[in-house]
Amino acid sequence: MKTEHFPSDIQPFITPKPGGDLGYDCLNCQARFKPDRLYYTCPKCGGLLMLTDSQFPRLKEQPGSFWRRLFDHRLMANDPAIRGVFTFHEFIAPLIPLEDVIYLGEGHTPVVAAPEVLAKEVGAEFYVKLDGLNPSASFKDRGMAAALSYLKYLTRIQGLTQVIAVCASTGDTSAAAALYSASLGGPVKSAVLLPQGRVTPQQLSQPLGAGATVFELPGVFDDCMRVVEYLSEQYQVTLLNSKNPWRVLGQESYAYEVAQQFDYEVENLVLIVPVGNAGNITAILNGLLKFYKAGIIESLPKIIAVQSERANPVFLYYREEPQARKYVPVTVKPSVAQAAMIGDPVSFPRLAALVAQYEKATHKPSFFAVEVTEKAIMEGTLAANRRGLPVCTQGGEGLAGLKAALALGLIGPKEKAVIDSTAHALKFMDFQNAYFNGGLAAEYGIETRAELVNKPKTLDIPGPLPDGRTKLSLTDQKLFVKTAAQKIAQSLGLKATA
Residue 176: which domain range? Predict the structure, then answer.
């Protein structure tokens, strides 16, 4: 849709202009730094940083109804720069000119209602946001779109000739980082560090296909993250993990989209989010707070963080009463929710700070953490897939979290849950196949239920048989077709037509 066809009062705002006053704020010492370079931690005290807009109050000059109309109309615009996460440019990263925005098709993933049969089995109406429909097949693209757009901007204004972008990953981050870095080309090269044997073949193929240099290290994600942090402190590299605050800005788009997809009426919503490295849930909290402060939404939804019992430091922290809480990293055990298998989430300080702000704004408990078993995660994944919702194992973790929250009475009868399925189901299909074939490693501690196993059936058909190389005679072909059809009909209990 062309700009001149939009309502006259919002025409001047459809294409956003750079503005605001973004800066890095240290959560520890409260120092503030200009965004003219890439910081990961505070140069003064080493604390974790968040990007904030000191001119945010200017956004309140327009009523919430204006912003709602503007964002809805931008979805009809033909400008690629505002088709993705930068639909919400003023709230994401207003510093970045549209000429530097990278758009590869990310954002605006669908929210799908659970089929009635599945909702009845679970005991509640719920939805799944299929974030695996992003370009690299995971939610990580949201953050990379913002981080690499900023890097493109920085490279242009500073005339940089060589940029090495690095990240540690359980698979999805590496795929997104490599893809978006490859789209820039030129001076930007990517390198990713993966825990050896802890990434699915599908995920490993993605950064390799995008031309990244891939290093497989012993240990788990937390070990890879320590190496990447050392690299970022001792060498000139660009860190693309969620320690990079630009990543968190891009991932706020998830919250904005959910609000938009429910017509900005979020009072009775419950957002269920796997924790992982805590960057995504941090971004969702911050995004909702921004929309609430600007009057775009009139209330704040309930947030439920989900962790496997094998990687559960956030659950353990929030299980305690506020005065007794002490954050302690955990040593993870293997989990089928591989992308969430993180024992020391980098963004935990951000999460804790934002939960405090969130509950202050709601004046009541509105953030909860639950833990689930590996068995519940796997069975949640299978249950969703069998009822028409293809989810990854993190989506299965979310479904298990929904069931746990219902059992604890955290979700009321009038509330509707939205589960974040963070990646495409095909990325983690090896776990399902292993479950069906009895090959799921004992280290996961999952006992297979026979009624959930599904395998292909073979038929005992006498020859001659087609082999894909030689052509059967017409008589043999007819005999094969008839015999195969009869055996299939017998297996399915079909009745012959009259």
Answer: 139-251
Domain check: are 274 and 423 in the same one? Answer: yes
Neighbours of 393 (CB within 10 A): 32
The two three-digit tokens of residue 74, written as one number:
């931008």
Task: Please write the tens of the pLDDT for every residue from 46-105.
Answer: 999 999 999 999 999 999 999 999 999 999 999 999 999 999 999 999 999 999 999 999
Residues 6+ apart with CB under 8 A from 447: 375
Distances in Å between the Cα of 124 and the Cα atoms of 119, 274, 413, 421 are 5, 19, 8, 17
> Are residues 355 and 373 located together in one domain of the fold?
yes
Q: Compute the mean pLDDT over every residue in the chain, rounded to the nearest whole number.
A: 94
Contacts for 207 with CB less than 8 Å, ≥ 6 apart: 174, 175, 177, 178, 190, 192, 214
Q: How confident is the model at residue 286 (pLDDT cuts 50, 70, 90)?
A: very high
Residue 17 maps to a domain: no
Question: Cα(180)–Cα(148) distance, rounded to whole angstroms?
Answer: 7
User: 230-272 pLDDT, tens per residue?
Assistant: 998 888 889 998 889 999 999 999 999 999 999 999 999 999 9
Same domain, 401 and 268: yes
Q: In DSSP terms, which residues pair with 216 in a beta bridge?
A: 194
Judge whether 129 lies within some domain: yes
Residues 334, 102: Cα–Cα separation, whole Å: 35
Q: Is residue 494 part of a domain?
A: yes
Distance of CA 191 to the CA centre of its chain: 21
